[in-house]
Amino acid sequence: MVQELPRDGWRIMKFTSNSGRDCIVDWLDGLPIGERKVVRIELEVILRLLRFTRSDLWTRPQFAWLQGDRNDGIGEIILDCRGIPYRPLGCFGPGEDEFTILIGARKDRKRRGKVQWNPENAVATAVNRKALLSGRTLYEYIL
Question: In this predicted model, what pLDDT tens digit does every residue of 18-47 receive, in sequence order?
Fold first, then answer.
C-alpha cells in the first residue's frame, strides 16, 4: 500500500455484484427514507476529506482499522447520522491509488462490549470481497 498521497488524490471505488450492480448505491437506497440523504451527504463529506489525506493519517474520528487477524486491511468509515453508527467497510486497492468501499453497514455495541454488525456478516463479507478485487470491474465514486 502506498502511504504517500497520490498526485490526484485517492480514487474512491465501489464494489460491484456479480451481476454488475453497485453495492454501495444499493445499500444507500435500502436505508430508511429519512436517513438516505443524510447518510449519503455525510459519507461524501468524509470521502472528500480522506481522498486528499495520506493513508497513514486515515484515523479517528473519520476512519479506523478493524482489529483482529481475520480483518487485516479492512477499515471502517465512521459516520454517525442522527445517533445511528453507520460504518461502510473498505480497503486500499486494487490499484495503488485506490480505496474500495466493499459493503455498507451499521455497527452497534451490545452488552459486555461485544460489537453487533448489521448486516450480521458485514465483516466477513468485506473480507471475502477484498479477496475478489483483483481484475474485478468496479465503479468509481464521483465526488
Answer: 999 999 999 999 999 989 999 999 999 999
> Which string of DSSP letters, residue by residue, matches 9-21?
-PEEEE-B-TT--
| Cα separations in angstroms, 57 against 39, 54, 61, 62, 76 | 23, 5, 11, 10, 14
The per-residue pLDDT for 114 is 81
Buried b (16+ CB within 10 A) or exposed e, 79-90: bebeeeebbbbb
- The pLDDT > 70 percentage for the chain reads 97
Domain locations in the chain? 11-137
C-alpha cell recorded at residue 40: 449519503
Side-by-side strand order, sheet with 79-81: 79-81, 84-86, 106-109, 115-118
